[in-house]
Write a structure and sequence with these properties.
- The protein is mainly α.
- The protein has six helices and no strands.
- α1 crosses α5, α2 packs across α3 and α5 runs antiparallel to α6.
- The protein is globular.
- Pfam families: HTH_26.
């Protein structure tokens, strides 16, 4: 087996992951009715880099991923553990479940 095949497979998997992550981030951003430029400012990236992230063309750091999750109010584990890694069959539903449960959790915590 050629040596480059392993690297190619990893490259394809990373590209698929980046695309799924971008789709998840865009879905959450739109659901909250945030503009891309506002999210970019809040997480500390340029508008150009934000566009690349949202197109799945950028490899972001863990700290930046954490900033996105904090701003979009979604746990990192929900974002990458149920959708971006492909483990959820219905990504929209898993994100909807989080969105529906989040206000109830905050209300219960404040009581």
């Amino acid at each position: 087996m050629p040596k480059y095949k392993g690297q190619l497979e990893q490259s394809v998997e990373l590209a698929v992951f980046q695309t799924r992550l971008a789709t998840a981030l865009n879905t959450l951003r739109k659901r909250k009715r945030f503009k891309m430029k506002d999210v970019a400012r809040r997480v500390g990236v340029s508008n150009t880099y934000m566009t690349k992230i949202m197109r799945g063309q950028a490899n972001i750091s863990l700290s930046l991923l954490y900033c996105f999750c904090r701003e979009l109010d979604v746990p990192v584990t929900d974002l990458i553990g149920t959708w971006a890694d492909g483990s959820a069959d219905e990504p929209e539903r898993s994100l909807n479940d989080h969105a529906q449960n989040a206000p109830a959790e905050k209300t219960a915590a404040s009581s």
